[in-house]
Design brief:
Blueprint (H helix, E strand, L loop, with lengths): L2 H8 L3 H4 L3 H16 L1 H14 L7 H13 L3 E4 L8 E7 L3 E7 L32 H19 L3 E8 L8 H6 L8 E4 L11 E2 L5 E10 L15 H15 L8 E8 L10 E10 L2 H22 L2 E2 L3 E6 L3 E2 L1 H14 L6 H14 L1
Parallel strand pairs: 3-4, 3-5
Antiparallel strand pairs: 1-2, 2-4, 6-12, 7-9, 7-10, 7-11, 8-9
Helix pairs in contact: 3-6, 4-6, 8-9
Length: 363
Amino acid sequence: MVAAPVAQVESPSPASTADDPRLVRLKGEAAATVDEMATFTQQMVDQIFSFGELGFQELETHRYLVDVLRKNGFAVEEGIAGIPTAFMASWGSGKPVISLGSDIDGIPQASQKPGVAYHAPLIDGAPGHGEGHNSGQAVNITAAIAVKRIMEREGLPGTIRIWPGTAEELVGTKAYFVREGLFKDVDVALFSHVASSFGVSWGERNNMTGLVSVLYSFVGRTAHSAGNPSRGRSALDAVELMNIGWNYRREHLPLEHRSHYVVVDGGDQPNVVPRTASVWYYFRETTFEKIKELWSLGDTMAQAAAMMTGTELQPTRVLGSAWPQHFNRPVAEATFANIQAVGMPEWSEADQTLARALQKELG
């Protein structure tokens, strides 16, 4: 992050940027500041972990992060793109505009006591941070504060923005952020996510698929399941037949394909033929064209299921979508050079003990 505002002032050639003594000094200062803020960073990580809120419900997480950012001099616009738990924090003025993003939502059934290597929920059945979304915003905020201090002291132009990946697990908000034009003037977008390695990537990654999230709803005719079942037309039968058809088709789909579903409406009680039923699908693939092919196949399965059961397929609802990721090579290479310069974290013996216990638990 330090490189961009400095380059704006001095405009060195790409080859000379890494050897610029001033830039090397400022990067060193930024790294030292980040180290000094380690306790603050860990407090943010732990606090967000304690909330463990589901997508669109990140109320406490939202309040906490907005408060931290405002206390550190950032102007914060809440409710961006019409989403109550989304925000855009900003500091500085002029170019370059550097955007820092990271997800904040938890996932269902993932409540977990911190620092424990086996499954031990804080609250049984509650959501939690099973994908590490408690960490990214913390490190982004720390990085932004460190760079902000240098920019203030050196009088460097530039704008730092911080935003949350609200409801990322639902693929629920980023498309709306783009549609709202929130990144139109951004020069560099950097995104942080927890991983099993410390690195970057560029171009298209085969394991970073895009997806579309679709709700299929069926309407039939209710009847008493024992007294007069012949009058009924079960919407749940349509859902089950769609799922059966899809599962048979899986054998003939490419290996990189991924799809998942949950039944979100399966009727009310066994002695009543379900008039309504719904199933929620994710279709994942490596290109948007392939995603659309899978989606079309899902539509065909749903239509066939409705025909077989004498039910009516309602207009499908797209709940979210995301194109496959495509990363910028120059940014990735510059970031990787900085990773090499900073080096890996120094793991304590307690860290190593926990890691070994996790390895044993996971097999």
